[in-house]
Amino acid sequence: MLKQQKTLNKILLVAGIFALLVIGITTTIGNILISNNKIQAQKQPQLIEKTQLSIPHNAKGHASHQIVNFQNSSDGISYKGTVFFNSSKPIDIISYTETKGQQNTNTTVKIWEVGDKKFIPKTLLKNATKGIVDFDGSGVLAHSTQSVPYRVTFTINATSLNGAEGSISLGPLLKIFK
User: What is the distance between the alpha carbons of residues 148 and 50, in angstroms, rounded to a whole number?
Assistant: First the structure.
């Protein structure tokens, strides 16, 4: 009987050690997974809703037009993303690409001159007050040929395609589709 009790105590001791090892390993793996999820969450773009009042367009010959820059041009960087917007008046959504010194041999292509830089605009959406639009280019903006200011609430989720790492994001998904 004493021998059986010692054997039972050894089995219980081994089972207890095994249980502690399983709990320890499980806890360690869980902590690693939680830590990795936190790191991944920090890498995700933090979207922020932004509202801006339009300003005069800075392109040569467009001073009477109004714009809201969703994504400004940065030297040598192209972006790809999506803009969600809600405007107080109808606007056009235009992406634009820097020409990088290329000569314009096509006279039908519009060129925006801003300071010493030239951009080729591409109209993505016309006469809209709210919507979602995908874009790629050096930047993207809301545009009106009228001189009357307007207000736009927007969210942009954009990733740089070259020249910089990471993503650039402004705004949580808007509550624009009420």
Answer: 20
